[in-house]
Design a protein that fits this description.
Elements lengths: L6 E5 L3 H11 L3 E7 L5 E6 L6 E5 L13 E4 L3 H10 L8 E3 L2 E7 L5 E7 L4
Length: 123
Amino acid sequence: MIKYVDIVSLPVSDQAKARAFFTDVLGFELVRDNPMGPDQRWVEVAPKGAETSFTLVTWFQDMPAGSIKGIVLDTDDLEAEVTDLKRRGLAMSPIENQFWGRFVTFDDPDGNGFVLQQASPAS
């Protein structure tokens, strides 16, 4: 039985630049940064305490940098997170309200698209 999503490949143009964005701006942890053959590295980042991580890939020709959209991240305090991310220089959409919760959208330096949401408590 499948237990959870382990790693999601995220296409980037520059692994060092992407690593800095995910760790310095988003506050993710660096899981590993290891050589992986000639001229390639395995760079893996994850939100603190998360089971699922992202590997920042440059080697999939059919996954150009910036081609992933709609990755949803979750937070318990959207206002605090937005304030902190703006302080770190992240440009994002205004907070939007929906029946299911609130969210903002933003892109990484390559244009991969993310949604940061705070779901409403279950009724």
